[in-house]
Amino acid sequence: MPTYEPRNEAEAAEIVAAAAARRERLRVVGGGTKAAFGRPAQDEATLSAANLTGITLYEPAELVIGARAGTPLAEVEARLAERRQMLPFEPMDHRALLGSSGEPTIGAVAAGNVSGPRRISAGAARDSLIGVRFVNGRGEVVKAGGRVMKNVTGLDLVKLMAGSWGTLGLLTEVIFKVLPVPERAATLVLPGLDDGRAVEALSLGLGSPFEITGAAHWPAGIGAGEARTLLRIEGFSASIDYRLGELRRLLRRYGTPEVVEGEDAAALWAAVRDAAPFAADRAEGAVWRISTAPGNGPALAAAVAARRPARWFYDWGGGLVWLLTGAEGDAGAAAVRAAVAQAGGHATLVRAPEAVRAAVPVFEPLSEPLMRLTAGIKAAHDPAGLFNPGRMYAGV
User: Fold this and answer.
1) Which of 13, 83, 113, 275 is the most buried (most CB within 10 A)?
2) Is 276-359 a CATH 3.30.420 domain?
3) Which parts of the sequence belong to the FAD-binding PCMH-type domain (predicted)?
């Protein structure tokens, strides 16, 4: 299978135009770290953004950074760190969970709308993405957005590309708003809570005026073994001291919390971000990422566990359930979809054998009207169906 590695945007456009003329279906890749995410693509060649690298724009005073899509995420984060700035949405690193190698790229972060624990306060990747350049299925270069946030009337191409998983075009450049790195971060750790009480505590913290930027719960048997409920606050040191005291008082009926800071706290949140408790179970474990109303998370997880063995933990105050179950059969698809239908929300099969991902819906099944809309958007941007065909939905 041929691999195309354009050296610049113009060359990428030529390659796509030629592929369109041949009706040659293309697998779009960046660093390849998420190649096993989604349905197996029905492709005939690979189109790689690996050579589209380099930071194209950085204005620290304006809190804006732009880079070509193949630029390693680590390079972007290192450049921001020099000025004590960061990507607000704390993007996940899928490598340990999926058993992949390579380097995550900034374009793939945008294409997958890849976000982490800070999403509850700072929004998702799509909320910080303010500009894109991409090559559509006709081989045309399209520019949308720019260096500042704008109100949009009509189809917002910037937000449309975020989470499209390379099915609408090849991203060549992305621009993000960034934020200053907080002076200090501290995490309250409440031990021994069951799922229901943990979500109560997280909801109480999130509903307070004390600006929680991370809210997660590991049930007993996940991570270090003992159940742990985590609430993170960030900001100026004097503010942290005051908010820690107030949160201790607010949460006193849930136990006496430990305060964790520095590298230990950073490691905790990296493990939550990357679903690290499930990284070692690749051989037999399928992993689901389930979004629901925070108060519904425990009941949803219990409903799945009533039908098949499962383990899970929570992020986003209980609104994100990471669930591990056996990869045999449908990898829990029937149980998960039934629980989601009852509780509300949506579920994505993040990790499973290729045969399973080909047989069951990986992304949340769409209603007929939404599927028609999705197919119409795909046809408008990629009329020949070149880009990652079938990766998100069969036939699209």
Assistant:
1) 275
2) no
3) 1-181
Strands (E), the chain: 3-4, 26-29, 45-48, 55-59, 64-68, 85-86, 129-135, 141-145, 170-177, 179-180, 184-191, 212-218, 228-235, 258-261, 285-291, 310-315, 320-326, 346-351
Its pTM stands at 0.94
Below-50 pLDDT ranges, the chain: 151-153
Can you tell me which residue has the tokens 């279906």?
25
E strands, 110-235, where? 129-135, 141-145, 170-177, 179-180, 184-191, 212-218, 228-235
Cβ neighbors of 352 (< 8 A, separation 6 or more) are 286, 287, 327, 331, 362
How buried is residue 65: exposed, middle or buried, by Cβ count under 10 Å (0-12/13-18/19+)?
Answer: buried
Q: What is the number of other CB atoms lying within 10 angstroms of the CB of residue 241?
A: 12
